[in-house]
């Protein structure tokens, strides 16, 4: 075998299908890569606690989470970029006046500033995760918060975009947006890992499907978009494979020559 490569996989719509299930062929492909001596990592917008079971199932301990804000290499935290605390407080104060609930997320848990809200229930249910949002309005104090969720209808985020240049706002549900540090991306987190491992660009691979994968798919030369990917993600990638539920991971790995 030639020099060792590293393969980064997005989770939702890439490793996991639309029912949030891991196809058997995708699981087998990950273990085949590891048997060949390649490094396998995850690059996701999810919080670390939202894919702990998947990491355990696949034996993966290197990951980029929160779209690049919290990065772990072989179980060790190597990079973090939390939200600006003063700006987060000001955003919370504005959100309270508008009845827009806020959820604070660190690397271990997530807490809401309200005890219950229909917008939180509806959007979080769509993720099909076991974790439940509990109530702690002061959770942002004295800890690093890597991402916040703001719950509001489409268009209402303009108010916040105009006031908080410290943050980027990314809609992920009709009733919710991610609040992340401005200028963050999976690509930045990936660079931290590849430089630490000293793996050259010709040995870097990435699979993704969403708008938050575009920087990653653009930066990494051997990039693969899923067949179910957003058209902009497909345009950014070097290769396009089949969809997640048509053995897209295996086919993509064969396309780039990592599996035969």
From TrEMBL:
SUPFAM superfamilies on file: HAD-like
Keyword Hydrolase in annotation: yes
Molecular function per GO: magnesium ion binding; phosphatase activity
NCBIfam families hit by this protein: Cof-subfamily, HAD-SF-IIB
GO terms under cellular component: cytosol
Keywords on record: Hydrolase
InterPro entries, A to Z: Cof (IPR000150), HAD-like_sf (IPR036412), HAD-SF_hydro_IIB (IPR006379), HAD_sf (IPR023214)
Protein name (database record): Hydrolase
């Amino acid at each position: 075998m030639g020099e060792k490569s590293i393969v980064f996989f997005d989770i939702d719509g890439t490793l996991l299908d639309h029912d949030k299930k891991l196809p058997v062929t995708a699981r087998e492909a990950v273990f085949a890569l590891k048997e060949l001596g390649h490094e396998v990592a995850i690059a996701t917008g999810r919080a670390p606690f939202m894919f702990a079971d998947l990491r355990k199932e696949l034996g993966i301990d290197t990951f980029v989470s929160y779209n690049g804000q919290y990065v772990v290499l072989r179980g060790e935290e190597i990079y973090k970029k939390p939200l600006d605390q003063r700006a987060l407080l000001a955003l919370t104060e504005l959100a309270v006046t508008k009845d827009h609930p806020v959820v604070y997320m660190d690397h271990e848990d997530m807490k809401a500033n309200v005890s219950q809200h229909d917008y939180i229930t509806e959007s979080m249910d769509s993720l099909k995760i076991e974790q439940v949002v509990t109530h702690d309005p002061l959770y942002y104090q004295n800890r690093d918060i890597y991402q916040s969720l703001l719950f509001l209808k489409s268009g209402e985020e303009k108010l916040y975009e105009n006031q908080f240049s410290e943050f980027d706002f990314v809609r992920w549900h009709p009733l919710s947006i991610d609040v992340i540090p401005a200028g963050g991306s999976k690509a930045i987190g990936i660079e931290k890992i590849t430089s630490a491992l000293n793996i050259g660009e010709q040995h870097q691979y990435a699979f993704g499907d969403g708008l938050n994968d575009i920087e990653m798919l653009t930066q990494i030369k051997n990039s693969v978009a899923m067949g179910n990917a957003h058209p902009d993600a497909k345009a950014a990638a070097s290769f396009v494979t089949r969809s997640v539920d048509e053995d897209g991971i295996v086919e993509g790995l064969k396309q780039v020559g990592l599996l035969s």
